TrEMBL record:
This is C-type cytochrome. InterPro entries: Cyt_c-like_dom, Cyt_c-like_dom_sf, Cytochrome_c-type_DH. Residues 37-135 form the Cytochrome c domain. PROSITE patterns: CYTC. Keywords: Heme, Iron, Metal-binding. The keyword Metal-binding applies. The keyword Metal-binding applies. Residues 61-84 are annotated as: Disordered. It comes from Lutimaribacter marinistellae.
Length: 154
């Protein structure tokens, strides 16, 4: 008799756990679906909208740390030699959506436009996820940590 109750309890607990697991999007938090990036779309959008300034190989413009003749900084690289991987996902997406000047504020001027009118948030997230695939492990790990810290403080 005890075995029957134990077996019934295990089946019930397993079923409840499976329901929570399936309802959560498999690997997300409870009932938070997991979004899988479309990396080929991210690459295509990057090449279409970003590569003309940031380079087809994410190399950025030369002398990107010094203001150009217009007084604005050239486009930085998005590879490991730049600073993109220093920022959390939320900031990177905000810059991509609204443009650097809108995010920085305070009269800061930048040649980096926002692309939120041309692309959806999901499409621009795909671009950022594609860029991350090009980073070495150390930079990906650091950026994931910065993103996790940012999300924990929100």
């Amino acid at each position: 008799m005890r075995r029957r109750y134990l077996l019934a309890g295990l089946i019930f607990a397993g079923g409840a756990a499976a329901a929570v697991w399936l309802g959560s999007g498999i690997t997300g938090g409870p009932f938070e679906p997991v979004r899988v990036a479309n990396l080929s779309r991210g690459e295509a959008i990057y090449l279409e909208a970003c590569a003309s300034c940031h380079g087809a190989n994410l190399e950025g413009q030369s002398d990107w740390r010094s203001p150009g003749p217009d007084g604005q900084l050239p486009a930085p690289p998005h590879d490991e030699t730049g600073h993109t991987w220093h920022h959390p996902d939320r900031i990177l997406l905000d810059i991509t959506m609204r443009g650097t000047a809108a995010v920085v504020g305070g009269g800061y001027e930048s040649n980096m436009p926002g692309f939120g009118d041309a692309y959806t948030e999901e499409e621009l997230s795909d671009v950022l996820e594609w860029i991350k695939t090009r980073w070495p492990e150390r930079e990906r790990t650091h950026q994931a940590s910065v993103t996790a810290q940012d999300e924990a403080t929100r």
